[in-house]
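Consider the subject:
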Amino acid sequence: MSQCFPVLPDQVPQRGTPASRNFFKKLYLAQGWRFEGELPNLPKAVAIITPHTSNLDGWYAFLAMLGMGIKLTIFGKASLFNTPLKGLFEWMGVIPVQRHSAHGLTQQIIEVINRKDHIWIGIAPEGTRKKAGEIKSGFYHIACGAGIPVVMLSFDYDQKTIHCLGIFQPTGHYEQDLDDILSCYQGKFSAKNQQWLSEPLQKLLENHWKDQQ
């Protein structure tokens, strides 16, 4: 088994200690998983990871994130912080937002990004573990509005690998950019529950199988 695991670049927001990173890295690798690719040295980015068809996706991503020591910010409903789990959400890097604010969720997130010197936003663009008809565009509008790149990552259950597929700088032309982003995923992903793949990823998988024939 390859023991490949990236070293976190110095501009990427960081968390943890050498001891905690080593612990979670060993736990991740002990399950037969590896990480392929290098993280770009960026102080700000929107990190997307797909496919998302199982609760296990979060487990493997969480172990890899803590093993690398990357501080990944995610957003959750403000009401979650009125529960006994508030401390856990804060430790995990969850930032509360008002989802039904007239100000707009996307703009709230952009304003948080603009106030930070170093921040990576983590988003699962399918938005659900079940089958989705499309890729949600929120990640793209956040990246455009904040003027930061998208870092593309994928789960590959067949190879037990999380891939870093590089970066994409949005141009403002969503449909064309989404096609270009999805093309980076072809042949580099597989789901825990294939029947729940979103329709765009199902089409990519079908195209990949055709290319292999």
User: Anything to note?
Assistant: The first strand starts at residue 34 and ends at 36. Residues 93 and 206 are 36 Å apart (CA to CA). Residues 18-212 form one domain. The two ends are 28 Å apart (CA to CA).
